[in-house]
């Protein structure tokens, strides 16, 4: 069993209308290549490297114009699309959620509020964003089960292990991985580690542009990169295969050999 996966890497603009146009064009291109699952980067509503608070001001509800138009457009395609958007919360301080969404043919089929906020490397995501409090659900597409993660989640192996023990064949990670000393090395190392230690596919997409590294990639259960993007905007496509997962878990039975139980949230 196999399926086609696409990664639509781009630099998020300041205006949601431009980002919508880019998403629609990638969806057209992916459909022409018979892609079953397409992934966009993190926070695709709006971005301005000179104005980090824009994510709060530009946030839209899930029934706002961006998602309404994207969902309507998606009705013409059979592919499932993953992305994250910032959504207003009901808190008095005006902070927002960073929500990872899966959509298919006009419907939101799953959502996950980012658990680990990026309060590191002199940045503080929690200034504008509220952390989630629930383990992400699994999403089934074309016979594969996918675990949802977001950006900084990559640095916390407990979440990926939990999702795989829940049944995930692959992990999907939209990110806006910021440039900096050794950051590209961290991205490559951590993404490969999450695939290898869990003998699963890692589908990791990074935003491109002046602030972020791009370098989107799909890594197979034995650590082999099956497709990758550069630092610029582009769509890359590859296949993932159930047989490859089974083979990896046969020769490397790390999940069976583990001595620790399933990770749980501190609040569970």
Automatic annotation (TrEMBL):
Signal peptide segment: none
Domain CN hydrolase: 3-242
One matching Pfam family: CN_hydrolase
CDD domains: nitrilase_3
PANTHER family linked to this entry: DEAMINATED GLUTATHIONE AMIDASE (PTHR23088:SF27), NITRILASE-RELATED (PTHR23088)
UniProt family annotation: Belongs to the carbon-nitrogen hydrolase superfamily. NIT1/NIT2 family.
Protein name: Deaminated glutathione amidase
